[in-house]
Predict the 3D structure of the following.
Amino acid sequence: MANILFELERLRTTLSNKGYDSNTIDRIVQKANIEIKDAFDKHSAAAMELAVEKGVEKKSADFINELNMDEVNMRLTTDSGNMDFSTPPYPNLYNLLKNAKPIKDGSGVYKVIPIGKHTKDQKPISANIYDAIKKNNAERAEAARVQRIKISPKGSKGENSFRTATSKQNAATQWVIPAKEKDFSEDVEQINTELNQTMDEIISDIIRSYEEGF
């Protein structure tokens, strides 16, 4: 990544060697700096949007909510520095059996669980996550993270189907929410590489234009 301060000082030296006075040099360098900043604002916003899309694809509001732009080093990062938001398998039987009914023979408890139920007013998770990042609202982001898009079983045509959870089932193997891979290391590295390459070219072009134009 180009060192902006170094490039601006190089421009200052070039203009000084051409005989410009200090006030004129300051004005020209300031204009070049503003152009670089404006370009970075534009391309960093595009990089952020691309990173948000990656978060949407993997349904990781945690990643999106931590995203920020390091303006000094001109690169995307996260508040924690962590890029891996993967989640391990989660045994869910205990939670499902809260307020369960006793089995008639007294051998345990059970609960009938609806599968594939749709909520008409449920928004797509992408819309919720985008709204969260744009408003920088952690509560909305968390709501998007815990929201689940339930897909109807094949052939159900949107109708409910049911399964029964019981205390006799093996919590280690049944009703386990599978692990989710949400490692964004490669995604962010690629986005940062493209952002750096773009900004290197832009900075070079801006500095050259002021060196040759005066």
